[in-house]
Amino acid sequence: MDYLIISVVAFVVSGVTLFSGFGLGTVLMPTFALFFAVPVAVAATAVVHLANNCFKLVLVGRQADWPVVRRFSVPAAIAALAGASLLSVFARMPALATYHVGGRQFEVTTVKAVIGALIIVFAGIEATRRFERLSFPARYLVLGGILSGFFGGLSGNQGAFRSAFLVKAGLDKQAFVGTGVVSAVIVDTVRLLVYGVSFFTRGFGDLPGEILGVIVAATGSAFLGAYVGARVLEQVTLRIVRIAVTAMLILVGVGLLTGSV
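^ thats the sequence. predicted structure below, dont judge the formating
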């Protein structure tokens, strides 16, 4: 069931991320978190996200504006190091609380509480019409890179800030998409290096055996979704779908916050 659900989510969301503002990581990470520990879910999502963006790089990367990439992505990469390292710190912290309901024990951990809260916040941000119109002047590109990179490293939620800060950078539609993809690849590469070191120091035994197969299935589905999206979609907003997905994300976030997921 985990293979099917995660693969379907990866296909659908990847198909619309090219144009709609939906974030693959925003939706896929909570889906992984339903089946795996939060640090593993974040890292697995990063692998799929990087592979998917490398595929998009082939499709649209040549349209990137490289001066903007440098101004945005260098601070984003540095901030991603900090965010990913902080995730590792949170993962090592002891449980905040333990409680029982109906004979079952639930545990609220620091990493679940932090990621759950971020899921709720970013789900709400990406669902609002006001955010769709939110943008920042080009002089704030460095700040945008820092925010996007930090939250990308911590929870994978980098797309919201990236889009808001790049939209006023004087880019046409093709350059906007290409620049965003290149920036995402840089942040994903950096945070995966940190996650890899973290998992190595904690021991590979912490990783569930089936995670590699799920990652491969999700990556293939994301590739297919991106391929279809690049050729079929013109401008996708899917307002009703976005609201439904937001509600699902908030439920998962609450579940993580309360330790029930």
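The chain has a mean pLDDT of 80.
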